[in-house]
Design brief:
elongated, single chain, 4 domains, alpha+beta
Length: 750
């Protein structure tokens, strides 16, 4: 009998059944999807780095080295397991093309390498160590889709040709957030092409389990070993690999939490609507002696069934969507090592969302305990008593606007020109990178050339070197300091201001947190001056946002410094911005080894994939928001109409038309929908900015303000929400026409 009652009830109330099922499935799908993608990303990265035997410490160096000196250092360290020195043949991007696609506008430092013999292996699509033959080249998998490269294409480097045999996974440089990319060739081809580029060294160490890469990096610096280039540690490599897709997954997790909250409220509407319609039946069951516990069980078993099938549907939906969203993860990092555990975690995530909803269902069904049989039979009961149901509409509309707004504004903020100031980069028109053997000479030649160019409004030269700093507690660290005029193209300072003299230093947020220092504290910088190493006390004058170099950097004004320059950057603004393309083309045509790019292209090259991922998440939330609002308003209006059915019948008996009653509901709905939109916009702009800041803060970008897209924020989103609400209301208000004037004369509602 119980089975027959449940089946009949589900068939009779198909709209309520479908609505409940949709919200349960959506909640399970989104939370399960976020957990699946997180676990898949973490496991895939971990598997790739394990199979590739990623170095725990990597020092890039431009210039000559003494291998015996490095070997001696490695042998003196008890924490070193393996050591090797690899060569990286840095090429000019204008020399490189694959098929008919040139790399001239590519933002990365591209170069050739040979397969490693000890560790830091380059892997193929099966995560196996690649063996490359003469005349072949393996291309970074990150370029596969960007340049539409296929196996069999011809790669040209100057006048030389190589056949693209496959795509490689590089555990160090897979992410576009890594500034370099390695192409794998044979030893014979490497020697043949050596004269086409400038050679750099990758000094790599694998440490024993439990060793601290940061402590090792400090020891390496203390020995005065070769450091004319970036220093990278294992945790930083792992972070860069995870960030691009990780931010998109965090956005999905945020959306899943909002949808779960909305689902709980919506299912509450559904339950109250159902109880309101079944009031007389509940009274009859109580009158014939059926206990409150049995009545509650009769209702909750329906939601258990819907929850079970909703959970299954959510898991299936998560798998379908995850298959598409994880394609990039699979291409970059390969298959996860523990896929069974990942699926178990996804199922548990979906089950947790259903458990939370069922707890809410149980709480809502407890209202049947307080209704007497007499009041229910007479139709005088009110399961939605003491509640302003319209306020719930405001809350859900606000939550939906918030859910839509956060990823949308994150995308527009990261795509804006001003975002570079949160990356630790000056907001200029053009960026010039000088990274070659004789950096000072190349910089001087280029600076002399642009000084005579009357199209340039202003420019600023920044030179970066590696320094050792000591804190007041005796701890020492190795950091990179960018010296120059930081007032010409200032970055975004969270606290304090830029350095203006040699005794001041500004730190990136992540460095300040690691050192445990604040504005006003003093660091001691070991620098080279007049041929000697001297200690220079520097006051921390500012803390700024930075997501370059792993978010760890510093800025200073040590102009008369003799510390070797690792690289130089020149920021340039033109008097006429319309000449930027022409200027870049003109100066890029020279054979001087400089990388000259427009600043917006630099941003897109480094973070374009992240922006596209967030954009995809934004489109998903817009579609979800529209659907949720429609379903919510339909459920809300149906509940209110059932609750006020007698009043509507009385109004008709007094001569009011259905259209008049509908207009009354529309006016009331408008008030709460508009309030919800306004609250959602305000919370999205202010609270959403904090949440987005927390996500980007993982990269070192903090203190930023949303770059608001006025059309999307104040016109398109409100119109979408309003249109969804009014379409749903018109559907719901059809019920008003079914109410007759005579119903108010009855003692109850049939």
């Amino acid at each position: 009998m119980l089975k027959r009652l449940i089946v009949n009830d589900l068939n009779k109330n198909r709209l309520i059944t479908i609505s409940t099922f949709i919200f349960m499935a959506l909640s399970a799908m989104l939370l399960g999807l976020a957990i699946f993608l997180f676990a898949r990303l973490y496991s895939s990265i971990d598997s790739l780095m394990t199979k590739a035997e990623t170095p725990h410490f990597l020092q890039m160096h431009t210039g000559q080295i003494d291998e015996a000196k490095i070997n001696e250092f490695a042998q003196s360290r008890a924490d070193v397991e393996k050591m090797q020195i690899l060569t990286f043949l840095n090429l000019q991007n204008s020399q490189i093309s694959v098929g008919d696609r040139s790399f001239e506008t590519n933002m990365q430092d591209n170069g050739l390498v040979m397969q490693s013999r000890c560790f830091d292996y380059l892997l193929d699509s099966d995560n196996s160590i690649i063996t490359v033959n003469n005349g072949e080249v393996y291309v970074p998998v990150a370029y596969k889709n960007e340049y539409d490269i296929k196996t069999g294409d011809v790669m040209r480097i100057g006048d030389h040709e190589l056949k693209v045999t496959g795509f490689l996974r590089d555990s160090q440089m897979n992410s576009m957030m890594a500034s370099s990319k390695r192409f794998l060739v044979s030893e014979s081809d490497y020697e043949r092409l050596r004269s086409l580029g400038s050679e750099e060294y990758l000094i790599e160490f694998r440490l024993k389990e439990g060793s601290d890469p940061n402590a090792f990096a400090t020891a390496y610096k203390d020995m005065g070993l070769y450091d004319n280039g970036p220093t990278i540690t294992y945790p930083l490599i792992k972070l860069m690999n995870a960030l691009s897709d990780g931010i998109m997954i965090l956005v999905i997790l945020l959306v899943s939490i909002v949808v779960l909250f909305i689902s709980i409220l919506c299912i509450r509407f559904i339950i109250l609507t159902k109880l309101q319609k079944d009031m007389r039946e509940i009274g009859m069951m109580k009158a014939v002696g059926i206990s409150r516990k049995d009545i509650g069980f009769l209702y909750i078993v329906r939601y258990l069934i819907l929850s079970f099938f909703g959970c299954i549907a959510g898991i299936v939906g998560a798998l379908i969507i995850a298959g598409r969203l994880s394609e990039g993860i699979r291409d970059l990092y390969g298959e996860a090592s523990n896929s069974v555990l990942i699926y178990i975690l996804m199922i548990l995530g979906a089950a947790v969302s259903e458990a939370i909803i069922l707890l809410s269902v149980r709480r809502s069904l407890s209202r049947t305990k307080d209704q007497s049989a007499v009041s229910a039979l007479s139709g005088q009961g009110d399961f939605a008593r003491k509640k302003n149901l319209w306020r719930s509409a405001t809350i859900i509309v606000a939550a939906s606007v918030f859910m839509i707004l956060v990823p949308l504004e994150m995308k527009s903020t990261m795509a804006a020109d001003d975002f570079v100031t949160y990356m630790g980069i000056g907001n200029s028109h053009i960026r010039v990178d000088v990274r070659q053997n004789d950096i000072k000479q190349a910089t001087k030649i280029f600076e002399d050339k642009i000084r005579r160019d009357d199209r340039i409004e202003r420019y600023s030269l920044m030179q970066t070197g590696s320094y050792k700093v000591s804190l007041s507690n005796g701890n020492t660290y190795s950091i990179t300091i960018e010296n120059g005029d930081h007032g010409m193209f200032p970055v975004n300072y969270i606290e304090g201001t830029r350095p203006e003299n040699e005794n001041e230093i500004a730190l990136s947020i992540l460095n300040a947190e690691e050192f445990g220092v604040n504005v006003g504290d003093t660091l001691t910088v070991l620098r080279k001056k007049d041929g000697e190493m001297i200690e220079c006390p520097c006051r921390v004058c500012g803390i700024y946002s930075d997501i370059t170099n792993g978010g760890k950097s510093a800025k200073g004004c040590m102009i008369n410094d003799e510390t070797p320059v690792m690289w130089s950057i020149i920021y340039i603004s033109l008097k006429d911005e319309s000449l930027v393309n022409e200027w870049v083309d003109e100066y890029s045509s020279g054979d001087d080894g400089l990388k000259i790019v427009k600043i917006n292209e630099y941003l897109n090259g480094m973070y374009g994939q992240t922006i596209r991922n967030i954009s995809n998440a934004s489109l998903m939330t817009i579609a979800l928001g529209g659907v949720i609002i429609m379903v919510v308003i339909i459920l809300l209006m149906r509940l209110v109409i059932w609750k006020e059915r007698k009043e509507s019948s009385l109004k008709k008996a007094l001569g009011l038309k259905s259209a008049d009653i509908c207009m009354y509901y529309l006016k009331k709905l408008s008030l709460y929908v508009i309030s919800g939109i306004l609250i959602g916009l305000l919370s999205g702009v202010f609270l959403g900015q904090r949440l987005a800041g927390s996500l980007l803060g993982m990269m070192g970008a903090q203190g930023f303000k949303f770059v608001i897209d006025p059309l999307s924020t104040f016109i398109y989103i409100p119109l979408l929400i309003a249109a969804s609400a009014y379409i749903a209301s018109f559907i719901s208000l059809l019920e008003i026409r079914k109410i007759s004037a005579s119903e108010c004369l009855n003692s109850g509602l049939e």
